[in-house]
Specification:
Number of helices: 4
Low-confidence stretches: none
CATH topology of one domain: UDP N-Acetylglucosamine Acyltransferase, domain 1
CATH architecture of one domain: 3 Solenoid
Strand order of the largest sheet: 10-13-16-19-24-27-30-33-36-38-39
Distance between the termini: 95 Å
Structural class: alpha/beta
Largest sheet: 11 strands, mixed
Length: 345
């Protein structure tokens, strides 16, 4: 597939600088691009690489010069890159049927153009919307409901009665609706608390490989619209996650936690149970949230505190041995002065 630079600029709400008739057949990085490719300059620090790139054209931020190349000037080159990549991406064709070797249970309500690959298991009373794709090894327990344009990759498991919205992508090995970690002490032993709630995944959510979203003990564990979850993330029972959040790999959120909208959790962030994280919060990598976090803050550290303060503390930490030595030397001098003053009295 090819598109002219003018056509791409129209799709990206950008402005062509140079020859709008140039034909573009792909997109690549500045270093790897070849003739016919569109590349992108997301960071002006790398502007010197534009002239030497073999790309036929470049996506650039507004106000940044583009020497020796035809360009599309856009407000957000990285976003424009993503949209261009989507434009050139050829999605795999699915047969739109239940293939031999798949199991489909009783009373399954199935929309149009649903693909169920061999080795997938669909339980009884399941609802599948239009254009759902179930790859090999997918298991849907009884009474699961799945919306339109959902893709469940290999070995995804969705437990009984859980609900998945429209345009959701779940990557291989993820588990939605496993039992929450709930046990009541019974003397020296533990009595399992039945987990009878469900998980609701709202529209446009993406869940990474081997992540787990536990079912609620009684009500609902909810992942809000548009939230993106990386690989190896654990969301415990009865959590409510807001809209358009981004969770990086190995995040762990304990039970009954409330997370607001537009929250970013960097890798390995841990949040204790029964706390509330506000809207528009960013939490740095490896941080631990042990209490409520208000709206519009940036936090880092264990336990987490304001990110700017954490940067200052992190800069001081390597100097602590030297500072300790200096303090000991000062204390010694003070003692010597005090002894001299005492001797003069």
């Amino acid at each position: 597939m090819e598109k002219s630079l003018d056509e791409l600029a129209g799709l990206l709400d950008g402005t062509v600088i140079g020859d709008g008739n140039i034909r573009i057949s792909g997109i690549s990085s500045l270093d790897k691009a070849k003739a016919g490719d569109l590349t992108f300059l997301a960071n002006p620090r790398y502007a010197s690489k534009v002239a030497s790139s073999l790309a036929s054209a470049v996506l650039i931020p507004k106000g940044v010069p583009c020497p020796g190349k035809s360009c599309i000037e856009v407000a957000n080159p990285y976003l424009a890159f993503a949209k261009t990549l989507t434009c050139f991406l050829e999605s795999p064709a699915h047969p739109g049927v239940v293939l031999e070797g798949a199991h489909v249970g009783k009373n399954v309500r199935m929309g149009k153009d649903v693909t169920v690959y061999p080795g997938a298991y669909v339980g009884n009373d399941v609802t599948l919307g239009d254009r759902v794709v179930l790859y090999p090894g997918v298991v849907l327990y009884d009474m699961v409901a799945v919306g339109n344009d959902v893709t469940l990759h290999a070995n995804v498991c969705v437990r009984e009665r859980c609900r998945i919205g429209n345009r959701v992508i779940v990557h291989p090995g993820a588990v939605i609706g496993g039992d929450g970690f709930g046990y009541a002490p019974d003397g020296a032993q533990w009595y399992k608390i039945p987990q009878v709630g469900i998980v609701i995944i709202e529209d446009d959510v993406e869940i990474g490989s081997n992540s787990t979203i536990d079912r609620a003990a009684l009500d609902v564990t909810r992942i809000g619209r548009g939230t993106k979850i990386d690989n190896l993330v654990m969301v415990a029972h009865n959590c409510v996650i807001g809209e358009d959040c981004v969770f990086a790999g190995q995040v762990g959120i304990a039970g009954s936690t409330r997370v607001g909208n537009h929250v970013t959790l960097a890798g390995q962030v841990g949040i204790v149970g029964h706390v509330k994280v506000g809207n528009n919060v960013t939490i740095g990598a490896k941080s631990a949230i042990a209490s409520d976090a208000p709206d519009n803050v940036q936090l880092s550290g264990i336990p987490a505190y304001p990110h700017k303060d954490w940067l200052k503390v992190s800069a001081i930490t390597p100097r602590l041995p030297e500072l300790r030595k200096n303090v000991a030397a000062l204390e010694k001098k003070i003692r010597e002065l005090e002894e001299k003053i005492a001797s003069l009295a």
